[in-house]
Amino acid sequence: MSSEQEIKDILKIMLLDKDLPSMQYAAKFCEKALYLTGIEFKSQCLYILGNSLEWTGKVQGEMKVKIRKFVFSENQKVKKEIQRL
């Protein structure tokens, strides 16, 4: 699983494309996310994913998958715990 710092490194890469029309809104969320931690950071990542739908390509897709796994990894652990009950 990726750490917050690894995801922040991905966001910095995403910001290299901030002038693309497809990144117009996501870039604002990326910039803010770099200063957040914990649940606030994960929440901001959801906004980034939702606003970068048109930011496409093989590498871009792989980066978004890492962000998605980071955001939802805790949810999967909780879900497994609930299923065990």
N to C succession of SSEs: HHHH
So what's the overall shape?
Answer: globular
Tell me the major beta sheet: none
Number of helical segments?
Answer: 4
Please indicate the percent range of residues in DSSP E strands (runs of 2 or more). under 5%
Describe this structure in words.
With 85 residues, this protein is an all-alpha fold. The chain has one domain. Helices cover 73% and strands 0% of the residues. The protein contains four helices and no strands. Helix 1 runs antiparallel to helix 4 (58-84), helix 2 (24-33) packs antiparallel against helix 3 and helix 3 (38-50) crosses helix 4 (58-84). The model has no long low-confidence stretch (mean pLDDT 86).
Observed structural traits:
mainly alpha, globular, 85 residues, 4 helices
Brief rundown of the structure:
The chain is mainly α and 85 residues long.
Record the SSE blueprint.
Elements lengths: L3 H12 L8 H10 L4 H13 L7 H27 L1
Helix pairs in contact: 1-2, 1-4, 2-3, 3-4
